[in-house]
Amino acid sequence: MTASGEDSLIARYFKPIATDPGAFSLDDDAALLKAMGADIVVTTDAIVEGVHFLSGDPPETIARKALRVNLSDLAAKGAAPAGFVLTLALRAADDAWLRPFAAALGDDAKSYACPLLGGDTVSTPGPLTISITAFGRVPANKVVHRSGAQRGDRVVVTGTIGDAVLGLDILKGGAVASALAGDDAALQLLVGRYRVPQPRNALAAVIRAHASAAMDVSDGLAGDLTKLCAASGVSAAIHAPGIPLSRPAATLVANRTVGIDRLITGGDDYEILCTIPDAEFEAFARDARKAGVAVTAIGAVIAGNAIPSFLDAHGRELALKRRSWSHF
Amino acid sequence: MTASGEDSLIARYFKPIATDPGAFSLDDDAALLKAMGADIVVTTDAIVEGVHFLSGDPPETIARKALRVNLSDLAAKGAAPAGFVLTLALRAADDAWLRPFAAALGDDAKSYACPLLGGDTVSTPGPLTISITAFGRVPANKVVHRSGAQRGDRVVVTGTIGDAVLGLDILKGGAVASALAGDDAALQLLVGRYRVPQPRNALAAVIRAHASAAMDVSDGLAGDLTKLCAASGVSAAIHAPGIPLSRPAATLVANRTVGIDRLITGGDDYEILCTIPDAEFEAFARDARKAGVAVTAIGAVIAGNAIPSFLDAHGRELALKRRSWSHF
């Protein structure tokens, strides 16, 4: 029996990584997801060549980014990964590209215990587009929303903020590239942060246990905090110098290559932004340490419906021209 | 608070149709799907401008097709629709296009009880691409596979086969368009079948009750039957003159404008192909009638691993050059 090109592509590259019984070896029209008594959390994020990743990015990092931007949403909702489906819109079935893409995707699926359940491969004359829908399980009625933040809660972020936008600047040959010329470790760190997010799935259970609200930071901290506050009907005051920065990012801010405003509006961080009731904060910080995830309190939830303010070391409000990345 | 263009687009067009409580009004990072004790069936299908629909197709029909190709998979698996997420890759946020697109999508979501749960809207320099992942609920361990067909089972299809490929030919100004010139009812019927599939969700419970195997016919009957037989480890013999055709399709075959081979290899039918144990067939046919879905037995499952054969009125095997549509 001669398989069609599409079937043979799927057989060669994706069947080997679709080992979950619910994937039916990709031989059926649909996959099966057992809820196992949990609620199913569903998230979907697409990445487009030239928009979310660059044409020259390696297939391995594109695969990892496509999955991880979705894993990041599951983490922020307090859900454990349960699986994903993949839609791949390709110009051509290029083995040299597909082999490393599928291998890296399979690697990540294994590391994050998030099996490939199914997908669709279509041809497109346009840019490579990868759309993933990921599923997580969360105990019934325990999903963490954006809308639960209360006045007095601490505002917390994981990891460091702003690295990815600097990495993108480097890949585009911008001012950051010249400022860091020769510092290979810094260049690699920032580019790596743009290409391969580090979703904080290790923190999911801790978020579920302690956070009043949470979301992932994908479109820029300033804009995403604005969304969280709007959903919760509150405002927030952030101490900008307290925002955690990587060593290279801190250096670039110190020598005025970039302003802090750029770091908090750039997007692609895939860190978790959450609010923690003050009385829970110590327990939260302890549990986060146990989970191996760095967390930093950067401000407080306040009453009102004003746009959250970011204050500098002198207590002056930063003027932010644009709060977040938008496609349109 | 000024919303970004992307947020405002979502607020204007998609919030009004995301009325399910699990969608959280599209104000969160993820949606919630309650399994309610069922297994969750997951299917994903993307449609690309210029590949699965034409640039000139109305936004309403594009919306309906995007959702319905997924509903068709749920029906074939015996699942009741539970919801869907949408990824829309757009060149621009064009209100005149988005308004009717979202309205038609909302209509179909309501008619098929398949609520919009979430999505992602991204910009693309390439063709409009719509990727939908749909969910269904099926009683635990009752999903219908491709792999259960047994020797002696009847091979059955719903509706009529081959209309969509004729509709596409008409839209492209091919020979079918000239052959049917003046017969507006026929032209409209065939174009409608290409643009707006009629998924057989009314038959899902009947499939679950009686079918040994099932799938939807999306890439052409011949190729899809080949897949079902391969998954089941059987072969099949089909009486080609018994394949149900619409009046216009039958006329075009009778006057030799097209051959039956074109109709069974063209794809885009979105009918259900299933196998029914002979002893179940009467009960199946009765239940299908009650559900209001036309079903036709077209052949039998036979032993062996030969490619299924399609026999003409004289018992001669049809030579099929290409069994199904493939993207690559």
SSE pattern of chain A, N- to C-terminal: HEEHEHEEEHHHHEHEHHEHEE
Q: What's the domain count of chain A? A: 2
Largest interface: A-B, 78 and 79 residues
Q: Give the helix tally of chain A.
A: 11
Provide a short characterization of the protein structure.
The first copy, chain A, is of the alpha+beta class and about 325 residues long.
Topology:
The structure is a homodimer of 328-residue chains.
Chain A: H1 5-14, E1 31-33, E2 39-48, H2 59-76, E3 80-90, H3 95-111, E4 116-123, E5 129-138, E6 154-158, H4 163-171, H5 175-179, H6 184-195, H7 204-210, E7 213-217, H8 221-232, E8 235-239, H9 247-254, H10 260-265, E9 271-276, H11 281-291, E10 295-302, E11 309-311
Parallel strand pairs in A: 3-4, 8-11
Antiparallel strand pairs in A: 2-5, 3-5, 6-9, 6-10, 7-9, 8-10
Helix pairs in contact in A: 2-3, 4-6, 7-11
